[in-house]
Amino acid sequence: MSDIAIAVRNLRNQFGQHVVHEGLDLDVYRGEVLTVVGGSGSGKSVLMRSILGLTQPTAGSIQIYGEDVLQLSAAERQRVDRNTGVLFQKGALFSSLNVRENIALPLREHLGMNANDAGDIASLKLALVGLDAQTAETMPQSLSGGMIKRVALARALALDPDILFLDEPTAGLDPIGAGEFDSLLQTLQQALGLTVFLVTHDLDSIYQVSDRVAVLSQKKVLVVDTLDKVAAYQDRWVQAYFHGPRGRAVSNQQMRPEHGN
Amino acid sequence: MQENGYIHFNQAEGRDCLTLGGDWTVAHYIDLKKQLANLGDVPQSVTCNIESMKKLDTAGVQLLYRALGEHKLRQLPLTEQQHNLIDTVINACSNQEPPLPPKSNGFVKMLERIGIFSSNLYRNQRDLLGFMGATLQSAAQVIGRPSRWRVTAFVAQLEETGLNALPIVALLTFLVGAVVAFLGATVLSDFGASIYTINLVGFSFLREFAVLLTAIMLAGRTASAFTAQLGSMKANEEIDALRAQGLNPLELLVLPRVLAMLVSLPALTLVAMASGIGGGMVISALTLDISPALFLHIFERDTGINHFWVGMIKAPVFAFVIAIIGCNEGFKVSGSAQSVGEHTTSSVVQSIFMVILLDALFALFFMEINW
After folding, report:
1. What is the largest CA-CA distance in chain B?
2. Residue A19 near residue A13 (C-beta atoms within 8 A)
3. Rounded distance, CA A116 to CA A108, Å?
4. Which chain regions cross the lipid bilayer (chain A) (predicted)?
5. How many helices (H) and strands (E) does chain B have?
6. Which of B95, B99, B336 shows the shortest C-beta gap to A95?
7. Bridge pairing between strands B15-24 and B6-12
8. Interface residues on B facing A, Cβ-Cβ cutoff 8 A
């Protein structure tokens, strides 16, 4: 079996007259962190939603572990979905359930666990993302932004998926919280052997966690490669993104420790 | 692809041996937990054979950790990545505080809930009075300055709360008028006094039914709308945005709604009186052979104008209470969609309760002054 987790081929997405993707190809390898960047409106979220089956593409094929997910029946699709965890941008925690119930819900629904077992696993997942037992009983409304992201990550990990989709996980977090989230993600990714599809604008995150970077531009994947090679790619947008004032600041920071050696 | 996880205990060559195999994943959690429970206590000297183990995830590690303990778990011949996994889970488990013990028994919990409910009740009423005061205060600030009257907002609210509610209020009171006339006709004919059906319908609608039914209709229709509108604005931080721009949300949002209610509820009450008496008149004509002309003549002769005023005086009071409760609940919404729902329910229940309570107090008062 190949080590390609997700293969997107010739994807086309169109809303009315507006074409978002045309002839888009992308591979995500097993066990890597692939970061997807692109300007606002370049279709990062649409790409993620297409892979997740939340948006039906106009044309093209999407394979997850070699299965063409667009051709699957609803029941088969559900089986594939159980292997993917999603962290939505605003967390999307169920506001009528407390934190523990939020994480326990997929366990109870999919695996038929009773409340005790599901609560047990939920507590472990909370501990994995660094939250204490007291948080388990609180309602999502009373959580801070950083805690919401952590709980959402715990919920995404509830079924121990192989593939994790993250939509701007550090957006709206302070730099310290964002940094902690990045290292948490890195630890879990390495420990659990996750394949991560990360959509982000946060240059710090890109430098810290990503194995490869894909740039979405001109309706397709402009370039996908390791960070150094992408940053050196000759394109006006890519250059402005990685070598603008913000990009420079981050890359300098990342270089400094190496100079020290 | 998938293989059920299993665990066996056997003794070979005088040594205890545990054989673990298959997928130790969350999908088989329930089954594995049962197997572990059947296994009972494992002797410390046991050796583990995991050659046929396929997959391991956090749930599987959690089970093994509980069954075998940390020491044994770390000794298992696993891949580096699986050791990473085990380290991470063990770290998380050891940092994990024991789950909080259930605080107290059911009776104490019940008392606690009663206490919380009572203190909330008190606090809510105090907040409501505070909100009423704040609204009146901003009304007093605006009243002398016509340039700050929100005429457009007021007219829009008037259309929504008054005009749009007119058909349903008229229909409802017409039907209740007919029902009251039916009741009167049935009961009073036993005494040969069916002519007094006219008085029954007239008195009841002028004094009570018209204003009460209208107020209850508007409490259900408008108070909920006010709460939902203001609540979703609050959830969307629009109210904070107004405050931050130095604008007074009470003046912009609450005053037009309260004023619109103060105008539309009395107006609708008037319609409700006419419509209810109309309903009684139709039934009288159909079942008691009392012609509309006779009905109106007796109605005019027997019913004093004071009954009309008893009904009308209550209308603005109810209007004020309903509008204030609706807006106040809207401002109390916090964040979530569920909160909007809760407060909408609460605003309808509270305003109907207050309307009926006030109506009872009014009835006592008017009885005492012989109106």
Report:
1. 113
2. yes
3. 10
4. none
5. 15, 3
6. B336
7. antiparallel
8. 25-27, 29-30, 33, 57-59, 62, 81, 84-85, 87-89, 92-93, 95-100, 334-339
B-chain residues within 8 Å CB-CB of A141?
334-336, 339
* Residue that the structure tokens 């009885």 belong to: B367
Tell me: do B39 and B158 sit in the same domain: no
Considering the domain architecture, whether residues B82 and B150 belong to the same structural domain is answered as no
Both tokens of B365, joined, read 């008062």
Q: Domain ends where: B60, B95, B130?
A: B95
| pTM recorded for the entire structure | 0.65
Domain count, chain B: 2
Residue A225 three-state SS: strand
Q: Say yes or no: B125 and B48 in one domain.
A: no
Q: Which residue segment(s) compose the domain that B82 sits in? A: 6-95
The pLDDT assigned to A225 comes to 86
Q: How far is CA B257 from CA A155, B226, B317, in A?
A: 43, 8, 14
B57/A121 Cβ within 8 A: no
Predicted confidence (pLDDT) per residue in B242-264, tens digit: 888 888 899 999 999 999 999 99
Looking at the fold, whether B220 and B131 belong to one and the same domain comes out as yes
Put simply, the answer to whether A141 touches B100 (Cβ < 8 Å) is no
Q: With an 8 Å Cβ cutoff, are A192 and B57 in contact?
A: yes
Identify whether residues B66 and B125 lie together within a single domain.
no
Answer yes or no: is the ipTM higher than 0.85: no
**pLDDT for res A115:** 82
Residue of A83, A99, A110, A123 to mutate, testing the B interface (most B Cβ within 10 Å of its Cβ): A123
- How much is the pLDDT for A256? 54
Is residue B111 situated within a structural domain?
no
Look at residue B38 in the predicted model and tell me its pLDDT.
Answer: 81
Please say if the pLDDT value at position B59 is more than 50.
yes
Q: Are residues B130 and B238 in the same domain?
A: yes
CA of A26 vs chain B CAs: smallest distance (Å)? 26
pLDDT tens column, A82-115: 888 888 888 888 877 888 888 888 888 888 788 8
> Does residue B129 sit in the same domain as residue B82?
no
Q: Tens of pLDDT along B308-323?
A: 999 999 999 999 999 9
Same domain, yes or no, for B21 and B149? no
Contacts of residue A231, defined as CB under 8 A and 6 or more positions apart, other chains included, come to A238, A242, A243, A247, A251
Task: Single out the residue in B95, B130, B156 at which a domain terminates.
Answer: B95
Per-residue tokens: B230: 């203001």
The CATH number assigned to the domain holding B22 equals 3.30.750.24
Which is higher by pLDDT, B40 or A23?
A23
pLDDT for residue A253: 67
Q: Which CATH class is domain A4-225?
A: alpha beta
- Residues on chain B touching A107 (C-beta within 8 angstroms): 26
Q: Domain map of chain A by residue range?
A: 4-225
Q: In 10 A of CB B212, how many CB atoms?
A: 21
